[in-house]
Amino acid sequence: MTAKRGTAYRVETERLVLRCWKPEDAKLLKEAIDASLEHLREWMPWANDEPESIEEKAARLRLFRGRFDLDQEYVYAIFNREESRVLGGSGLHTRIGEDALEIGYWVRSDAVNQGYATEASMALTKVAFEVNAVQRVEIHCSPQNLASAAVPRKAGFVHEGTLPRRGPEKDGVPVDSMIWAMHADAYPGSPPSQMELAAFGALGERLL
């Protein structure tokens, strides 16, 4: 088994910067969410608790950073390369058990259909296998969310099944959840494995 190389605090791809949130990102994050509420509420249950104040956002980002530092969960901002605009958010979530990470993602409404979710997800798949050294990566989504389901398909994940009423509630009813997975032995040669990126640790050291 490959040893863990560290924790990727910053990932740079061709078009994106994915990095650990900072409290000072609160204003840019609030702008992205507030401009996309109708779009986000369709599939993201947390959006029903929006809008939040700048102070609430900053507190949430401090929590994200704390969990990141403790290796409990890795919630990433998705920025443009200049880091002047929040395009969305993603994460490597530890909720599916040992030696496995789940990727989640959202994209602001005026940045959809531009491949950002796919680019971010493929980058974090590479990080999960080559930096975190997990054995399995999963992506969960509603079968009705066709745009979201297209992401793991493009990245070479396998649809392992659809679980009835296992996802978050929508209109008071839990939605079905598609389970897409990639295992470590299938990672070599996959689209994420071929992706060019740079990943850096907390001190700026190069991990990939």
**Which strand order does the major sheet show?**
7-10-6-5-4-3-2-1-11
Which stretches of 5+ consecutive residues score pLDDT under 50? none
Which class of secondary structure composition applies to the elements?
alpha+beta
The count of strands amounts to: 11
Global morphology: globular
- Which oligomeric form is depicted? single chain
Which value, in Å, is the CA radius of gyration?
Answer: 16 Å
CATH class, named Alpha Beta
The CATH homologous superfamily name equals Gcn5-related N-acetyltransferase (GNAT)
Report the order of strands and helices. Answer: EEHHHEEEHEHEEEEE
Query: What percent of the residues sit in helical stretches (DSSP H or I)?
Result: 25-40%
Number of domains: 1
Separation, N- and C-terminal Cα atoms: 18 Å
| CATH topology tier name | Aminopeptidase
CATH architecture: 3-Layer(aba) Sandwich
Q: Mean pLDDT across all residues, rounded? A: 94
The major β-sheet equals: 9 strands, mixed
Detailed description of the structure:
The protein is α+β, with helices and mostly antiparallel strands and 208 residues long. The protein has a single domain (10-200), classed as Aminopeptidase (3-Layer(aba) Sandwich), CATH 3.40.630. The chain has five helices and eleven strands, in the order E-E-H-H-H-E-E-E-H-E-H-E-E-E-E-E. It has helices at 26-34, 37-41, 54-69, 116-130, 146-154; strands at residues 10-12, 16-20, 74-80, 86-93, 100-107, 136-141, 158-163, 169-170, 173-174, 177-183, 198-200. A nine-stranded mixed β-sheet has the order 7-10-6-5-4-3-2-1-11, with helices on both faces. A two-stranded antiparallel sheet has the order 8-9. A hairpin with a 2-residue loop joins strand 8 and strand 9 (173-174). The longest helix is centred in the N-terminal third of the chain and has 16 residues, at 54-69. The chain is globular. The two termini are 18 Å apart. The model has no long low-confidence stretch (mean pLDDT 94).
